[in-house]
Amino acid sequence: MTRNLTEIQQKILQFIIDFRDEKGRPPSLSEIADKFGYKNRSTVREHLQALEKKGLIKRDEKVARGIELLLEENMFITRPVIGEAAAGSPVTIYPGAIDTVDLPNMIKIPKESFLLKVKGESLKDAYIFNGDVIIVNPNAEPGNGKIIAAVLDDGALVKRYFKKGKKIELVSENPEFAPITVDESYPHFHIVGVVVGIYRSMDAKTGRYS
Q1: Choice among 117, 119, 159, 172 that is catalytic
Q2: CA-CA distance, 114 to 122, in Å (whole number)?
Q3: Whether 135 contacts 199, CB under 8 Å
Q4: Distance CA 67, CA 2 (A)
Q5: I want to staple 161 with a disulfide (CB 3.0 to 4.6 A). Which of 30, 74, 148, 190 is the partner?
Q6: 30 in active site
Q7: What is the distance between the alpha carbons of residues 5 and 50, in angstroms, rounded to a whole number?
Q8: Segments forming the whole domain that contains residue 34
Q9: Would residue 159 show up in a list of annotated catalytic residues for this protein?
């Protein structure tokens, strides 16, 4: 279940996570107030109460740093990855899930969106790399310059979209890959959605993203 966090709640939660990871302890109310420019701690308490009600933290007001993150239980939701889309030559979208990924609950994913895993390096200059998981919204309107997921001759690909008259140009973000041009009436080409987000996990042991 996605948590409906306000922008400031997301920022405070992320600050608590980063502070804990860096210093090995949660921040105090004063440290949170200083970070966000609050003159008194009552405003901080209100935001922490909201985070606690949403099941993201647990507080002990008798302790100076009494904030406990409930990461494992509440921070992530498992979503299926339904296929691979090539940042290069087309590959396949499968009818069933090929993998799963744990997405942070604070990520707002549009209804009916789906996940695809990127294969290849043709979008590396757009900071989309091999193995990344992209969030695709099938209801978003494609427009010039947007990154789309499409099916071409039964293969799936991810490219930047440009419409030029009756032609569609699918452009990579890597000079090693030439653009792909298709006629808009070509029966074996259709757009399945617009890329609205990207998720990249980091290996806790190596510190590298994967």
Answers
A1: 159
A2: 21
A3: yes
A4: 21
A5: 148
A6: no
A7: 9
A8: 7-69
A9: yes
What residue has token string 């008798």?
62
pLDDT over 70 at 199, yes or no: yes
- Which helix (DSSP H) or strand (DSSP E) does residue 77 occupy? strand 76-86
Two structure tokens written together for 8: 């400031």
Is 138 inside a domain boundary? yes
Give backbone dihedrals phi and psi of 188, rounded to 5 degrees, phi first. -105, 25
The chain-wide mean pLDDT, for the chain, equals 82
Catalytic residue among 54, 113, 122, 172: 122
Which CATH number characterizes residue 49's domain? 1.10.10.10
Overall number of domains in the chain = 2
Read off the pLDDT of residues 10-50 as tens digits, 9 standing for 90 and up. Answer: 889 889 988 887 888 999 999 999 999 998 889 999 999 99
How many residues appear in the chain?
210
Q: Write out the two tokens for 157.
A: 């690909």
Shared-domain flag, residues 182 and 140: yes
| pLDDT higher than 70, residue 64 | yes
Q: Enumerate residues 6+ apart whose C-beta is below 8 A from 203.
A: 209, 210
